[in-house]
From TrEMBL, chains A, B:
Its main location: cytoplasm. Gene3D superfamilies: Bira Bifunctional Protein, Domain 2 (3.30.930.10), GAD-like domain (3.30.1360.30), Nucleic acid-binding proteins (2.40.50.140). The keyword Nucleotide-binding applies. This is Aspartate--tRNA ligase. Belongs to the class-II aminoacyl-tRNA synthetase family. Type 1 subfamily. GO terms for cellular component: cytoplasm. L-aspartate binds at residues 179, 225, 451, 493.
Length: 588, 588
């Protein structure tokens, strides 16, 4: 191999433009493609910024041309040359107006034929892509993803720093807590028989940092959960973790609404505007989801009153038994075929509804199998209520409210998907607020915390905690939703010992148990804990959505499979018996 | 407890100045100190920015004054008030010209008497400080340290990003490698009997990222080593990790010399100038150390030639047997007592020297027990050589060169310490370059890599590798030294398969063994690996030295003890038998 020590790169390939015509340049990169045209050899030279064409002309330098004949795809080379205007510009690439006439070539490294093509999508399986991740990452699309992720991280830190948040590192080797998801454990060699755990999140540390008076904290933190993986989960993932002292929910929405808006503006140039907020109750009633996709309408309407006296028995009996009739209008969906409508019916039935009532909107009213059961004035009121237009299609479900919400929520997503109503370059953000403090656990047959037991109730609901309807209390908890995905969430925490005791009591956690589980945090709270709260954003998913991608593995440099393996380096792997002996553990 | 939801903080305590006189403010913070003077109650209110005085006057508001009587140290409060000029300014604090006359007080949380005082150094043991870390971190000095660390991290990322380095996250759950220090292991539940390891550094990943064409990478990375800890080591530590493609050592020195200079300039306002460099060989010969403290002189001089014909037998026999006589001049050390000189002699003897020859410099020459053995012209030449002045003291050691270097190197540090020659606010940086490629392992009785087996040799020493003196080859490896501490180090890596095979052969590593140990990296190198190299800076130590501190635990938010424990949360800890069963492991 040759060396390039005496050659200083002058430019990146992708930066060359016609304005550089006549310049002498030194470029270094990979042979993306070689074409021999007549006597000329053309090389597309590639680096992280893009490609440019370099030319070897045997009439100018026969020896150099001979050397260029050795070049194969993915060879690493350095070229010295002059930029000239191309006779015929190539409008498909940004450097297409120029080419580099080479005067010196160094072959810095050769390459075997790579198992995946770098300059095209060869349709390789994800398994091959992950095994040869170092080559997969060489692909321009993947380079763009990873560089964009870096840009989001830089922008995040700069924005939060400017807002007075202090980046503080918290430990990766921490105490195992029996709450929440499963911990990854790390056996201690020095303290045999004992274990560290990897953090599921820096939750306790960030609350302690508020007790320490840091006032505003953030960290782009690695978190770990040993769960059985779904397609969009990773055993280690990255979150933008934030906590602040003396906040109110409104301060949180304003502060981090602005943060997210600035982040979008500065990285992808998108103005998301002021982020609206909606209570959990409203989100469930209007969208049938606590993470509604608000890129498209199809809001649910409760139309029970319209059908209070209907002759349509199915509706009437539901209304009389305390259920609800809920409707959505699907715009420009009058063309859905009977077959599709049957499939949509399956969606609502899978959510627990008994059936789906539908009607195409026309100039006269509604057209469909159930329309004949409804009085003309009912139809007219319904169409008006839903603001439906001819060519739309109206769907209705009659059921218990929870079931109706769930069924129409699922229906709305299904219709949006089939009709491609959700655009990937549209970004619709929403704060969902006032989550319930408790949720009923069917497994444990009791009320458990919807977030975690330190979540503060709404101030106006504190008195509820002392009543038999304590489980109706709402929390000062919030999620930030983007295009139907929860990209962030958090809460104001309880900082008063009295209120905390009350919540523990309601959750059936004894003082002794609280001490054992959360002792060092409760202990810290004795010495002057400020009111505090915060949130965390899932970086992987946020970046994925910003890029309009479908897999978080495409925005993580070295991801693991759904069986938590790294195919590139065959990890996890067996280890020496000696290593285990030192740790004082044995395999079962 | 009261709430502060309706009160928006207008300012931080420490930011208040006379220019704010007359302003209405809302402050939130901790009661640092309460003083009752006559009828008035004075509170020093503290937040992360500092303190300011707030006053309760019973003649203005008797009820409020009564409430203020309840306040104790570390209570969390919100106050509403007006800024007035103090009658008598307190010049010792930055807010000393003003005070806040309170019109509303909210007690947001009470506090028990903390086990360590926040507003003074109570001389608590480190054990107590670590147990109550959340309170220790509330101390202004610790807050300053952690906030400075955050500033260094922000500046680092901004500088490196501007220089075109891309921040890329590498996995924490990786493959265990049998090389180097001991890995922390993480048992896999999904893949029973297999283990992940926590990274000792992102070394292999950053080299793969170069193969992937990212060109310039950085990361502020958590690293883990399960070693028996010394006072200044932590099981998890943070490094600024960097790699670039197509570098030369000079590019590395220029690029990261500028980075470090900018970092110092922007964070502590210190101009470190252009960082000089010195070969490993010179550093050993002049300072007796590969990490010389260059804040003070006392360079070593080889003066063997002066004593080639001396009558002083000790010197003569050393010179004749091929050893060296080396000398340093200790400026203004003529006042060292005989007792101190005896202690200094112990230092050189501990390094393997037989003894220490010394003489005080006076107008006539040298004064000391050995001076009488030396001819006047020898003394005169010695004094001139060393540029010694009356009042200085000259020290000499005669021994094998390696021993003499080590002995005088240790002596020089000891003298500097005793005479306080090294100032903590002086920052002296040095690149130490051209480290040996190999070092002899007494344990294994063979030559092993001084850094790691991927370190490239100097281009001019490559031919040496094919000779019997291969072990004399120098590496393209470098350290950055600050005030006698290695704060960074790295190398240019081998990227050619042929050269790599040769180095493996010299190290006695068979092809099969290389494949087993480094297979996936060697495999990646087949597909077009660019020349590359990099380095890593130890963030903890860098921040510690920049702050003039002596313990890295004072710049790490939640450090572990030398037995790798966290005293605050009692970690590592025992875990449930069920957790171990799920992981398929048992305790021995």
């Amino acid at each position: 191999m040759e060396t390039d020590s005496d050659l200083k790169r002058t430019q990146y390939c992708g930066d060359l433009r016609l304005e550089h015509e006549g310049k002498d340049v030194v470029l270094k990169g990979w042979v993306d493609r070689r074409r021999d045209l007549g006597k000329l050899i053309f090389i597309d030279l590639r680096d992280r910024t893009g490609k440019c064409q370099v030319v070897f002309n045997p009439e100018k330098d026969a020896e150099l041309h001979k050397k260029a004949e050795k070049l194969r795809g993915e060879f690493v080379i350095a070229v010295v040359g002059k930029i000239v205007k191309r006779v015929q510009a190539n409008a498909t690439i940004s450097t297409g107006e120029i080419e580099v006439v080479v005067s010196d070539l160094r072959i810095l490294n050769e390459a075997e034929t790579p198992p995946i093509a770098i300059n095209e999508d060869g349709g390789e399986s994800e398994e091959i892509r992950l095994k040869y991740r170092f080559l997969d990452l060489r692909r321009p699309a993947m380079q763009k993803n990873i560089m964009f992720r870096a840009a989001v991280m830089q922008e995040t830190r700069q924005l939060l720093s400017k807002m007075g948040f202090i980046e503080i590192e918290t430990p990766i080797l921490m105490k195992s807590t029996p709450e929440g998801a499963r911990d990854f454990l790390v056996p201690s060699r020095v303290n045999k028989g004992k274990f560290y755990a990897l953090p599921q999140s820096p939750q306790t540390y960030k609350q302690l940092l508020m007790v320490s008076g840091f006032d505003k904290y953030f960290q782009i933190a690695k978190c770990f959960r040993d769960e059985d993986l779904r397609a969009d989960r990773q055993p280690e993932f990255t979150q933008i973790d934030i906590e602040m002292s003396f906040p109110t929910p409104q301060v949180i929405y304003d502060t981090f609404g602005k943060f997210v808006a600035d982040l979008f503006k500065h990285t992808i140039g998108v103005d998301v505007g002021k982020i609206p907020s909606m209570s959990y109750y409203d989100a469930m009633n209007i969208y049938g989801s606590d993470k509604p996709d608000t890129r498209f309408g199809m809001e649910m309407h409760t139309v029970s009153l319209l059908f209070a006296k209907t002759e349509f028995k199915v509706f009437r009996s539901v209304v009389e038994s305390g259920g609800a009739i809920k409707a959505i209008n699907a715009p420009a969906c009058g063309d859905l075929t009977r077959k599709v409508v049957d499939q949509l019916t399956e969606v609502v039935v899978a959510s627990g509804a008994k059936g789906l009532v539908w009607g195409k909107v026309n100039d006269q009213g509604l057209e469909g199998p159930s329309a004949k059961f409804f009085a003309p004035e009912t139809i007219s009121a319904l169409v008006q209520n839903l603001n439906a237009k001819p060519g739309d299609m109206v769907f209705m479900v009659a059921a218990d409210t929870t079931v109706a919400n769930k069924a129409l929520g699922a229906l709305r997503l299904e219709i949006a998907k089939r009709k491609e109503m959700a655009k990937k370059d549209q970004f619709s953000l929403l704060w969902v607020t006032e989550f319930p403090l408790f949720e009923y656990s069917e497994t444990d047959k009791r009320w458990s915390p919807m977030h975690h037991p330190f979540t503060a109730p709404l101030e106006e609901d504190i008195s509820l905690l002392y009543s038999p309807e304590y489980y109706l209390a709402r929390a000062r908890a919030y999620d930030l939703v983007l295009n139907g995905n929860e990209i962030g969430g958090g809460s104001i925490r309880i900082h008063s010992a009295g209120l905390q005791s009350k919540v523990f009591e309601l959750l059936g956690i004894s003082e002794a148990e609280a001490q054992r589980k959360f002792g060092f945090l409760l202990n810290a709270f004795k010495y002057g804990a400020p009111p505090h709260g915060g949130l965390a954003f899932g970086l992987d998913r946020l970046v994925m959505i910003m890029l309009g991608l479908d897999s978080i593995r495409d925005v993580i440099p070295f991801p693991k499979t759904t069986t938590a393996q790294s195919l590139m380096d065959d990890c996890p792997s067996t280890v020496d018996a000696g290593q285990l002996k030192e740790l004082g553990i044995r395999l079962e």
